[in-house]
Predict the 3D structure of the following.
Amino acid sequence: MNAIKKKKFSINQMHNALIEIQKQIILSKWSPDIILSLNRGGCVPGVYLSHLINTPHEVIDISRREYKIKPDFYILEKAFIRYKNILIIDDINDTGRTLKYIEDTFEKYINRIKFSVLINNVSSKVKVDFVGEKINKKVDNSWIVFPWEEWK
């Protein structure tokens, strides 16, 4: 059995990725009214980006890896009532399964949502609007380890 190769993503890499995301948002001439982080991977980058671009922030509790747990979309549903432009951020768009689930569930509102990730797997099935870094899991299938995922 082969061990999964791991690559660490540092706090400095996160900072650089968020600055890149900020640049892309500015160039797009679109700005979010609220940032919604996907729990748990999007929480840290969401808070940082919220401060960086001075935008309110909340957390959506969803995980497509935890299929037994029904996603809690109350925060997102509330955001559709209160805000026009919604930015959803996560740490990585790996397979695209989580973002696709949101797209499919909220299809009638999808023109009000933009997605952002620190790392975008270019072979994912879901298009992301704002990206810090790109990888291709078909070329290098390493597991990305973010600073908030380990204590060492």
